[in-house]
Amino acid sequence: MTKFNSPCICLIFLLFLAFTPAKIFAQDGNPEEVGIVEHLDTIIPAGITFNNEQGQPVQLKSLINKPTILSLVYYDCPGICPALLSGVSDVVEKIGLELGKDYQIITVSFNDLDTPAEAIEKKKNYLGKHSRSRASNWIYLTGDSANIYALTHTLGYNFQRQGNDFMHPSCIMVLSPEAKVTRYLYGTSYLPFDVKMAVIEAQKGQSRPTINRALEYCFSYDPEGRKYTLQVTKITATVIIFFAVLLFIILIVRSSRKKSKIQNS
Q1: What is the DSSP letter of 79?
Q2: In what order do the strands lie in the sheet with 138-141?
Q3: Of the candidates 71, 85, 69, 159, which has an alpha carbon nearest to the alpha carbon of residue 121?
Q4: Which residues are CB-contacts of 218 (< 8 A; sequence separation ≥ 6)?
Q5: Greatest C-alpha distance within the chain
Q6: For residue 256, what pLDDT is reported?
Q7: Consecutive 10-residue runs of the chain (265 residues): their mean pLDDT?
Q8: Which residues are CB-neighbours of 143 under 8 A, at least 6 positions away?
Q9: Residue 99 DSSP code
Q10: Checking DSSP bridges between strand 57-59 and strand 227-230, what pairing results, if any?
Q11: DSSP state of 44
């Protein structure tokens, strides 16, 4: 039987840590790892309430009766939120599905200071590209911190406040008519085929993980530069640890085989 020595065990443990996502803390002032932990097949619970564009309270789940593209932003974001919303707006014209009939879009602000008036103002930026009937099926919501946390916690969407701004991932979620999370699509621009398939699968209640989670491991958001940067140190360390562990395992296996040959000779 092959025996593993202490250095090998330590390296395996380090490799495990390198590939294990950092612990996510609740939004109560404790450190929080910015990013996405995919909660596929999770159903948005009843009771999560936001204010619509008219300032009226609405339960989020009650709004979802067809496949829904859900985006989380904050309305005065100077960075990637406008790019994300533009990406969603652009793909609407290209996926060959009818907004309002085949699917809808809901945008929720995770800044509890945002107001319905700001939501309306933000929505006006995208009305020019779409008809009024289409725009009515792109819903903008605001809410308090408790309901925001309930939603982001349910979705596995983790962000940090940085003064007046936020560090946050760039991602849209696709929900089934039963408000079940079926897909995460990352970035600020989206391939029409990917979005169309995500909507069709959501209609059937089919969920699918995305390989783009690897991108989030390799990139982090720089709030000062307002862009994603490659985490060279993290990637390099992971690769070094991986090959170090692999080398140790090979050496141990070879050593074990040699001992077996000597004993059998």
Answers
A1: S
A2: 138-141, 104-109, 68-73, 171-175, 181-186
A3: 85
A4: 230, 231, 234, 235
A5: 86
A6: 79
A7: 46 46 38 82 96 96 96 93 92 90 96 95 74 74 97 95 91 97 93 93 88 54 52 74 86 80 69
A8: 49, 50, 51, 108, 109, 112, 151
A9: B
A10: unpaired
A11: P
Phi, psi of 263 (to 5 degrees): -70, -30
Cα separation, 142 vs 183, in Å, equals 23
Q: How far apart are CA 35 and CA 101, in angstroms?
A: 32
Residues in the chain, how many? Answer: 265
Among the listed residues 179, 172, 107, 171, the one whose alpha carbon sits nearest the alpha carbon of residue 143 = 107
Tokens of residue 88, six digits: 């969603």
In angstroms, rounded to a whole number, what is the distance separating the alpha carbons of residues 128 and 190?
Answer: 20
d(CA 258, CA 229): 47
Strand partners, 162: 165
The pLDDT value given to residue 157? 96
The alpha-helical segments, DSSP class H, found in 64-191 are 80-92, 116-127, 132-135, 145-155
One-letter amino acid for residue 85 of the chain: L
Separation between Cα atoms, residue 140 and residue 255, nearest integer Å = 64
Cα separation of 143 and 48, whole Å? 9
pTM (2 d.p.): 0.69
Name every residue whose Cβ is closer than 8 Å to that of residue 90 and which is 6 or more positions away in sequence: 129, 189
Both structure tokens of 187:
């970035």
Label residue 164 left, alpha or beta by phi (over 0 means left) and psi (-120 to 50 means alpha): alpha
| Whole-angstrom distance, CA of residue 75 vs CA of residue 109 | 7
Q: What is the pLDDT of residue 245?
A: 87
The pLDDT, as a whole number, for residue 163 is: 87
